[in-house]
Hints:
Blueprint: H1 2-32, H2 39-55, H3 65-92, H4 101-145, H5 152-158, E1 163-164, H6 166-171, H7 177-190, E2 194-198, E3 201-205, H8 207-214
Antiparallel strand pairs: 1-3, 2-3
Helix pairs in contact: 2-3, 2-4, 4-8
Amino acid sequence: xxxxxxxxxxxxxxxxxxxxxxxxxxxxxxxxxxxxxxxxxxxxxxxxxxxxxxxxxxxxxxxxxxxxxxxxxxxxxxxxxxxxxxxxxxxxxxxxxxxxxxxxxxxxxxxxxxxxxxxxxxxxxxxxxxxxxxxxxxxxxxxxxxxxxxxxxxxxxxxxxxxxxxxxxxxxxxxxxxxxxxxxxxxxxxxxxxxxxxxxxxxxxxxxxxxxxxxxxxxxxxxx
Length: 224
């Protein structure tokens, strides 16, 4: 019986969402005589925005779930409303008096643009999460294997960019030049960095970070 009630709630919730989207399509077509192909993407943006707000800005309101959801809903409604007005004024209104084909192409373009931005955001957040995971893994590895030279500032420096110079450590005040050179050579011997001559100086490449930045795959091999 419990499973039946839960499935009934799921069906009603999903059906309500479909009905709301269909109602939006109907209202837009009835007013402007145009199928807004970006309508579904705007719903997606509203969902993603609400989720982002609840997990970041309003995450501290965990003891007040109703207030957090209400606050996030108000922000999402305002944001999606402004997005709809912007799309209507820039993509639809200038073509209101044009033929049937031009507004449809414009609507498809708006939908593809919103979808592309969402895909890029998803890719970026996934990449950031992978880099953070690599940073934590590297921190633990260096702390365990090289406790004498480990500092959080040292690990942070080698994650600022895919390569590091001795001067980067000196500029950050982590160590003097001789000690900074020893630190980087120790990290290279550990397999975290890879030493590479570059003119009169040496670069210390961060291979795992370089791979994450240059590939779509967000996986990395743990240190041996």
